[in-house]
Amino acid sequence: MPVKIRLQRHGRKGYAYYHIVIADSRAPRDGKFIERIGSYNPNTDPATVTLKFDRALYWMQVGAQPTDTTRNILSAEGVLMKKHLLEGVKKGAFDEAEAEKRFAAWQTSKESRVNKTKEQIAADKAAAAKARLAAEVEVNKAKAAELAKKLAEAKAAEAEAQVEAAAETAEVEAPVEEKEAPAAE
């Protein structure tokens, strides 16, 4: 029975996530499988992978063939590296302790690269948010200046209208007072 390590699609249209499964190569993509060893979500940044490392390593050692995408996932998670090191131990190239030491060194370097990438993404998001805030502050200052200008113009127009109204009432009242004065004699 040819056994494959492959992805099984789940999720909705446009937002797929995958289960990593061990299946007979003749079974349908989303059909019967032997064992589920993990999941892969490409929708997050960076992609989220959960994997039963020891089960994936076991299946690789007994001859299960990964598909191209699962090979990349297993390689990124270190399953292929561990398999390669264990084959070196079997051949006598180095001992088990040396293999564990090399794998631990590879794992720490990978984790540091991933953490650096995550920090860079977070820093880029923070910088973009800061830039958006600065742009919004500038727009708000411009709007406030425009509003202050309109309010000043409105107050000036109102004051001018009051002055004109006062002048008109003064002109209207002045002749009325003069006319009243001769009538009072």
Notes on the structure:
This protein is of the alpha+beta class. It has a domain at 3-93: Ribosomal protein S16 (S16 Ribosomal Protein, Chain: A, 2-Layer Sandwich). It has 4 helices and 5 strands, in the order ββββαβααα. The protein has a 5-stranded mixed beta sheet with strand order 4-3-2-1-5. A hairpin with a 6-residue loop joins β3 (35-41) and β4 (48-51). α3 packs antiparallel against α4 (96-184). The longest helix has 89 residues, at 96-184. The N and C termini lie far apart (132 Å).
Search tags:
alpha+beta, S16 Ribosomal Protein, Chain: A, 5-stranded mixed β-sheet, single chain, 185 residues, 4 helices
Strand content: 15-25%
Q: What's the end-to-end separation, in Å?
A: 132 Å
Outline: elongated
What's the CATH architecture of one domain?
Answer: 2-Layer Sandwich
User: Which series of helices and strands comes N to C?
Assistant: EEEEHEHHH
Amount of helix: 55-70%
- Estimate the mean pLDDT confidence: 89
Number of strands: 5
Pfam families: Ribosomal_S16
Organism: bioreactor metagenome
Keywords: Ribonucleoprotein, Ribosomal protein
GO biological process, one term: translation
Task: Describe the structure in brief.
The chain is α+β, with helices and mostly antiparallel strands.
Chain-wise SSE layout:
Elements lengths: L2 E10 L2 E10 L10 E7 L6 E4 L1 H9 L3 E2 L1 H10 L1 H13 L4 H89 L1
Parallel strand pairs: 1-5
Antiparallel strand pairs: 1-2, 2-3, 3-4
Helix pairs in contact: 1-3, 3-4
GO molecular function: structural constituent of ribosome
Keywords: Ribonucleoprotein, Ribosomal protein
Protein name: 30S ribosomal protein S16
